[in-house]
Write a structure and sequence with these properties.
- With 501 residues, the protein is of the alpha/beta class.
- The protein has three domains: 44 residues, no CATH class; 189 residues, Alpha-Beta Complex (Spore Coat Polysaccharide Biosynthesis Protein SpsA, Chain A); 157 residues, no CATH class.
- The protein has 13 helices and 19 strands.
- The strands form four sheets. The protein has an eight-stranded mixed β-sheet, with helices on one face. Strands 3-2-1-4-7-6-8 form a seven-stranded mixed β-sheet.
- Strand 12 and strand 13 form a beta hairpin.
- The structure holds 2-acetamido-2-deoxy-beta-D-glucopyranose (3 copies).
- Keywords: Membrane, Transmembrane, Transmembrane helix.
- InterPro entries: DUF604.
């Protein structure tokens, strides 16, 4: 019986299927026809979209590598070598700087600009809010200036100059300077270390859309603005294709974000509309801190030093000099070995069990006890936050700086830089004089007190090393003192070497 039922239902199904097929034959044919028509439409519109996207894009994106702008667009892109292998490395000539200045601030701040600007080598302009007085000649060593075009038509709520400075990237782009790969923005009190800036930018494919910089050291600032924002004082870089996109949308975008405070926040918002986010590089320093930047610069991350900012707001880098002279001293070391500037190496003096830390070209420290590598790499907190002058938090871990001189390192500052022979330097660090009552009289400190100077020898660091995975360099300390001098040699670490081996 059960088999009968099965047979019956089977028949039923068969007839049902048959009738379904029959009645659907015509509609099926219609559907196929419709599908075909739709497909033709789809193919047509997709190719139209693709075609128009590429044509409009290429008229904007004139890649500097392409030999002749007069060639047709199609040829133009065929000659473009996508493998990138034939692209020459990025150098200083590929960068256009856009410095946000004003007549009011430039007369004092130009000294910062002139520290790093190299006439006829660095390209770009300081952008002013008004024409300089015609009777005063523009200083020869300053970057050339341009006056920002009328920006007053834009909405703003707190700072009108924010709009003007945000538009520097647009105005720089529209100058149509040849062979530009990067637009680098900075403030008029930003000090760039251009060789290292080149090393950093050379790591990236300038034919893609990049927004590169760093955020604020003070968490309160990042919370208020954004962790994802490149703070303008530390400087940031925008690749040519991103600038080309930004220029298209910027003016409309600026009106959308008129409530924002600074130019950097406006750029961040507009770059985000394009869908590009920040590529962080640790060598850009906004220096959103108060007090003494010593701890931060004595334990720089293992990354090339790209910029320093806000130097009028912190203590001079070298306590016995004013800020400008301090920078000149640091730059002297930088010229001898740009890639190594502020790079920290540390090692132990085995006989005395001392920890020794060198921040190359700046400072050295001796601790008459043993500290771990992670402690030595952690900045001593000699500073406060930017806005509230609080003891933190910062975007990195800090080490508490005790007020007790017996818990502090003995500190040395750079006093001489010598280039010896081929690719080697000698830097000398002299002991910092103690202020009255700030000296530790404990017997453990006495042997350190006999070290008046630390002499550091190092090979000149190849900038190419910054293209590889970063690794801190190792050092050795001579066993005995000579003439109250301790000798330290910085070198590449051995294959299986650690600080404790
Ligand atoms: C593109 O780069 C490759 C890889 O180096 C090279 O072999 C080739 O000749 C280049 N082509 C052109 C058209 O430059
Ligand atoms: C920079 O690279 C270009 C090639 O893109 C080269 O022509 C130029 O001479 C280089 N300039 C410097 C200063 O090295
Ligand atoms: C820069 O180049 C211009 C024109 O070639 C020249 O007149 C000027 O002296 C140069 N300046 C420096 C500082 O080399």
């Amino acid at each position: 019986m059960s088999s009968q039922v099965r047979e019956q239902s089977h028949d039923l199904f068969k007839s049902f299927k048959f009738s379904l097929f029959r009645t659907d034959r015509i509609t099926g044919f219609l559907i196929t026809l419709l599908k075909g028509v739709l497909l033709i439409f789809l193919v047509n519109s997709v190719s139209l979209v693709v075609y128009s996207a590429f044509t409009t894009q290429t008229t904007w994106f004139r890649c500097p590598e392409c030999p002749s702008p007069t060639r047709s667009i199609v040829q133009h892109c065929e000659t473009f070598n996508v493998s990138g292998e034939n692209i020459e490395p990025t150098n200083i000539s590929h960068i256009v700087f856009g410095i946000g200045g004003s007549m009011n601030t430039w007369k004092d701040r130009r000294h910062y600009g002139e520290l790093w600007w190299q006439p006829n080598i660095t390209r770009g302009y300081v952008w002013l809010d008004e024409q300089p007085h015609s009777n005063a000649a523009w200083p020869q060593n300053s970057p050339p200036y341009r006056v920002s075009e009328d920006w007053t038509r834009f909405k703003f709520s707190s700072s009108r100059s924010g709009v003007r400075i945000a538009r520097i990237v647009l105005e720089s782009f529209r100058l149509r300077l040849p062979n530009v790969r990067w637009f680098v923005m900075g403030d008029d009190d930003t000090v760039f270390f251009t060789d290292n800036l080149v090393s950093v930018l050379a790591k990236y494919d300038h034919r893609q859309m990049y927004y590169i910089g760093g955020n604020s050291e003070s968490v309160e600032q990042d919370v208020m603005h954004s962790y994802g924002m490149a703070f303008g004082g530390g400087g940031f870089a925008i690749s040519y294709p991103l600038a080309a996109e930004l220029v298209k949308v910027l003016d409309g975008c600026l009106d959308r974000y008129y409530t924002f405070y600074g130019s950097d926040q406006r750029i961040w918002a507009c770059v985000n509309e394009i869908g590009v986010s920040l590529t962080e590089e640790q060598g850009f320093h906004q220096i959103d801190i108060r007090g003494d930047p010593y701890g931060l610069l004595a334990a720089h991350p293992v990354a090339p030093l790209v910029s320093l900012h806000h130097l009028d707001y912190v203590k001079p880098l070298f306590p016995s000099q004013n800020q400008l002279d301090s920078l000149r001293t640091l730059i002297q070391a930088y010229r001898a070995d740009p890639a190594r500037t502020l790079q920290q190496s540390f090692c132990y003096q085995p006989k005395h069990k001392w920890s020794v830390s060198i921040s190359w070209g700046y400072t050295a420290q001796i601790y008459p006890w043993l500290l771990s590598a992670s402690e030595l790499a952690m900045p001593l907190q000699t500073f406060q936050t930017w806005r509230s002058w609080a003891n933190g938090p910062f975007t990195f871990t800090t080490r508490w700086m005790s007020a007790d001189p017996c818990e502090q390192p003995v500190v040395y500052f750079l006093d001489r830089v010598t280039v010896v022979g081929e690719g080697e330097t000698l830097t000398s660090y002299k002991r910092h004089e103690f202020e009255a009552g700030k000296k530790c009289d404990r017997s453990t400190y006495a042997p350190v007190m006999s070290v008046h100077r630390i002499i550091v020898s190092a090979f000149t660091m190849d900038p190419w090393e910054w293209k590889m995975a970063p690794r801190r360099h190792c050092c050795d300390i001579s066993k005995n003192l000579k003439n109250k001098e301790m000798h330290v040699r910085i070198r590449h670490c051995e294959l299986s070497e650690t600080i404790t081996t």
